[in-house]
Design goal:
Its EC number is 4.1.1.15. GO terms for molecular function: aromatic-L-amino-acid decarboxylase activity; glutamate decarboxylase activity; pyridoxal phosphate binding. Keywords: Decarboxylase, Lyase, Pyridoxal phosphate. The chain is α/β, with parallel strands linked by helices. The protein has 2 domains: about 10-55, no CATH class; about 70-470, Aspartate Aminotransferase, domain 2 (3-Layer(aba) Sandwich), CATH 3.40.640. The protein contains 12 helices and 15 strands. The protein has helices at about 10-15, 40-50, 70-80, 95-110, 125-145, 165-175, 190-195, 220-235, 250-255, 325-360, 390-400, 430-445; strands at about 15, 30, 120-125, 155-160, 175-180, 205-210, 240-245, 270-275, 285-290, 300-305, 310-315, 365, 375-380, 405, 415-420. It has a 7-stranded mixed β-sheet with strand order 3-9-8-7-6-4-5, with helices on both faces. Strand 6 (about 205-210), helix 8 and strand 7 form a beta-alpha-beta unit. Helix 3 runs antiparallel to helix 10, helix 4 runs parallel beside helix 10 (about 325-360) and helix 10 (about 325-360) crosses helix 12. It is globular, with a radius of gyration of 24 Å. The chain binds pyridoxal-5'-phosphate (PLP). Pyridoxal-5'-phosphate binds near residues 127, 209, 274 and 286.
Amino acid sequence: MPEQHAGDDDRASRDLEINPVFSREPLRVPRYALPDAEMEPDTAYQVIHDELMLDGNARQNLATFVSTWAEPQARRLMNECAEKNMIDKDEYPQTAELETRCVHMLARLWHAEHPQRAIGCSTTGSSEAAMLGGLALKRRWQQRRRAEGRPTDRPNLVMGINVQICWEKFADYFEVEPRYVPMEGERFHLTAETATQLCDENTIGVVAVLGSTFDGSYEPVAGIAAALDDLQSRTGLDIPIHVDGASGAMIAPFLDPELEWDFRLPRVASINTSGHKYGLVMPGVGWALWRNEAALPEDLVFHVNYLGGDMPTFALNFSRPGAQIVAQYYNFLRLGFEGYRRVQQTCRDVATGLARRIAALGPFELLTDGGDIPVFAFRLRDGIEHFSVFDVSAGLREQGWLVPAYTFPAHRTDLAVLRIVVRNGFSHDLADLLLRDLRRVLARLDKQHEPHRDAEDAGGFAHGAETKNPRTPGRH
Ligand SMILES: *Cc1c(COP(=O)(O)O)cnc(C)c1O
């Protein structure tokens, strides 16, 4: 909230004091107001640099999915492109060309029928890509309904309650009723049967997640597609799938080539991924692709001037940095298929190895084992009542590790878990160190008589697995 200042009132009213070691004027600058005058660039740099040192240590952050490391050559290219605006296709035709090449590479990776005719675009991340994917579904449904002379005022979107918060935003911002399939028992994501049960003539599409943020599991995209095929043959309802592959669309092609989740399934209309997750780029890039022209209604596409010609664009933003797209192209060129496969396989090996050893410690039970995306969730075994997962998370935090603990959404709000995200750079060595610290924390927690922390104390720590606003899941 822009009008609120972080921290207590006392701090907010105080100026930012500059350490006199710099021996430069001014020694105080207002914290929340624009300073009256200029200062030396080196002083400004040092003030900000020092303050940012308080940000966490990315190496020990096992909460985020987003890249925290890039090769020096990728960083150099990003610096060289810092001033390039992605929308100025006319001015930076080569950057635009690299974007097009990335779209084509992804189209091949995801088995598009005609990759040379692939349609897709870069975005700021999977969230913007989800808005575009959802809008295309909504517009296609509206056009079909209007052609049939039927009402278009009650669109709905079917998905698991485990979807990332961007889908709740899409439904809210673009006025589509979200139909969430709740969790039930040991089922923590969408299944074929539960998805089709909520579909009707107003369903614009089904979102299938390849890599749930709650536990790292793949949803059964092929099974959902088959159930929707069956629904169509029984009822005539033809409901497309959008695959949210924020993480998994950059894991499955390399590690699970036999798994059919992509454009090989005719029912998959569109796919998104986060270039800045397992695409291995620094924050700020995602991708959205459609299987063909029919899947992306022409009236959603705008046209910008491009070398005297015309360039179609579909985006929520106008200006946007081009550096991340260049870095994505760098990674594709630098790693190739085999390089990506090795990086992702290492992440999976570290995740599954760490999961196995955590399960062997005694008090924990795995929900997932890191064998889909390299992310796994675990809970306390029944009978462990003298400490909570929130105590474990806090204990690890004292050692510098960020391992979020959170409760699941409806109908499993009783279930509290810890989650570990393994990213490029989290090595077997670091996993050993984490395990050593986890053993120490457990030795201390074993002396407790009752839990010290609960979900209330862990607010806002789940990074992408935030619990949704209370509302009736799966409401018709
Ligand atoms: C991270 C994530 C998102 C949001 O992606 P951003 O790139 O952070 O905008 C959406 N869906 C899933 C499944 C995710 O993991």
